[in-house]
Fold this sequence. Notes:
The chain is an alpha/beta fold. The chain is built from 13 helices and 5 strands. Helix content is 51%, strand content 8%.
Amino acid sequence: MxxxxxxxxxxxxxxxxxxxxxxxxxxxxxxxxxxDLLPEFAALYRLFxxxxxxxxxxxxxxxxxxxENFRKFIEASLIPYAIKKNKSxxxxxxxxxxxxxxxxxKLFPDAKFIHMIRDGRDVVCSHLEVGNNYRINHRWINxxxxxxxxxxxxxxxxxxxxxxxxxxxxxxxxxNSRCLTLKYENLINNPxxxxxxxCDFIGIKMEASMLQHHNNPHDVILDNLWYNTKKYWRPISxxxxxxxxxxxxWWQKLxxxxxxxxxxxxxGYEKNYKWIYPIPLSLVRLFRFCKSFSQAEIIRQVIKCxx
Length: 307
């Protein structure tokens, strides 16, 4: 039985875990805990290719041999899990896979790729929550995207652009069937139709068990920082949509707008910058004269809204 691959990627906290749990509930799919290492494999692959192009390792390996060796190594690492579960499809969900898609598509041209997208403001809220979990548990973190809005928004922006570029490239190459973009909000609001869309993309029939993913057994590693039992085994819920509206103050909105406002608009989550309001009128007056302010361009666009 030949194992087929489906790779899921996107910014962490964008619904990749929810999608993984749903797909793992299908009778043909095995999807375990995050494998983590595919981005590192991809980075090493790029290094091999670069050395080959510089003719440093040409006497040892051809480009085709490099690809074959990496393909076999990844297969040897992942396929045993699918065999153990007696499933024909292996879904590997690690958010950072998004940065390995460009390599994985070369190694596995028949694989399917799913780019998961979520409103960046809610993604940032969730990351700040994780950062707070680290502090509560007295765990040290060096990841700035778990500490402040601006850094987290930049990370979301970069990840989105990477995924969009990959899917756009596949489309231009006539490979629309390789990459699927899925919005978290659509999955939450229309679970049946969106799950069916994913199943059609993979080439399988949707099963009722997928809508009851929270009642099914899954192999999962819970650290009580990113996920706990209550959060993982819960039904599809609307409670995390637009949480930023309740949690953010005006300066956090400005920080996100400065870092990723344009991408938020391009992805269809907003039409303009009016969502930032209300902000203190005195601050608006100050920004009108603050030409050197690092966020001045964003603020000028905000002021155009004339609230």
